[in-house]
From TrEMBL:
Pfam families: Epimerase. This is NAD-dependent epimerase/dehydratase domain-containing protein. GO terms for molecular function: aldehyde dehydrogenase (NAD+) activity. One of its GO terms (cellular component) is cytoplasm. Residues 8-188 form the NAD-dependent epimerase/dehydratase domain.
Length: 240
C-alpha cells in the first residue's frame, strides 16, 4: 500500500540503504542522496550530490520530504574529513532546504557514541555527560547541535558498534588470536546494521510523532568483550 509519507535519506549507503528498503516495504516514497547513485536500492529516487559542494543538486526533490534522515559516513577519517561530512555537509543540506522553501516534519541525525568519553565501566544512556576528548566525538557533538538548532524538529540517534557484512573487525581479530585481559572488564555494545536500520531502529524513530531529542541505539544488553570474543571463537575456530 502506497503511503503519502516521503523520506529523504542523505547518505544512502549501507545503513541508509537498509533503512530505505525498510521504508519502501512499508509504502513510503524514498529519495536517496549520495555521490554515486548507481548502488541505490531499487525503488529509491536518486539524488546525486557531493555534500562538500554548496551548490543545490539538480535532482533535489521538488516536494519537501516529510522526514529527512542524515546518515552519512566520512570518507576521510581525520578531523577535516569529519567536519566536511558531518558539519559542513549538514549545513549545505539545511541551506538547500531553505533555498527550496522546504521544512520537513522532522530531521533525524545519525550520530555516534564517540560523543561519550567515559572509560571506567560506567553505564551510559542518553542522559550521560558528553565530554569527548577525540576529534570524532567533538565534531559529532558540533553536528548534533547544528541539527538541534536548525529550526526543524530534530532527533539524534547515536549508533554504536555497528557490525554486519563488511563490518567484521571483531570477527577478524578473533580469527587472528585476539587477546583481551579479563581485568579490568572491557565492555562493548554492538548492533547489527540491519537492526540499526530496522523499523524498531531508525525507521521506528523516524515514524513516531513524538520522540526524545536524543536516543542511543544499541541492543538492550551489554556483553563483556572477553565473553563476546569467547562466543565468537567457538564457531570460527582457532586462529589462522
Amino acid at each position: 500500500m502506497m503511503s503519502d509519507l516521503r523520506a529523504l535519506i542523505v547518505g544512502c549507503g549501507d545503513v541508509g540503504g537498509r533503512l530505505a528498503r525498510q521504508l519502501l516495504a512499508h509504502g513510503w516514497q524514498v529519495d536517496g542522496l549520495r555521490r554515486s547513485v548507481r548502488d541505490l536500492p531499487e525503488g529509491v529516487r536518486p539524488v546525486a550530490a557531493d555534500l562538500s559542494n554548496p551548490r543545490l543538486p539538480e535532482a533535489w526533490p521538488a516536494r519537501a520530504p516529510d522526514y529527512l534522515v542524515y546518515c552519512v559516513a566520512a570518507s576521510q577519517h581525520d578531523e577535516a574529513g569529519y567536519q566536511a561530512a558531518y558539519v559542513e555537509g549538514l549545513r549545505h543540506v539545511l541551506d538547500w532546504l531553505k533555498t527550496k522553501g522546504q521544512r520537513p516534519r522532522r530531521l533525524l541525525f545519525v550520530s555516534s557514541s564517540s560523543v561519550y568519553a567515559q572509560q571506567d565501566g560506567e553505564w551510559i544512556d542518553e542522559s550521560a555527560a558528553t565530554a569527548p576528548e577525540g576529534y570524532s566525538g567533538k565534531v559529532m557533538l558540533e553536528a548534533e547541535r547544528l541539527a538541534l538548532g536548525s529550526g526543524i524538529p530534530a532527533s539524534i540517534v547515536r549508533l554504536t558498534g555497528i557490525y554486519g557484512p563488511g563490518r567484521e573487525w571483531l570477527l577478524s581479530q578473533v580469527r587472528r588470536g585476539y587477546r583481551v585481559a579479563e581485568e579490568p572488564p572491557l565492555y562493548g555494545n554492538r548492533i547489527h546494521a540491519e537492526d540499526a536500520a530496522a523499523m524498531r531502529g531508525l525507521g521506528h524513530w523516524a515514524g513516531r510523532r513524538s520522540i526524545r531529542a536524543i536516543k542511543k541505539a544499541m541492543r538492550p544488553f551489554c556483553k563483556g568483550v572477553v565473553e563476546r570474543s569467547g562466543s565468537i571463537a567457538g564457531p570460527v575456530g582457532p586462529p589462522r
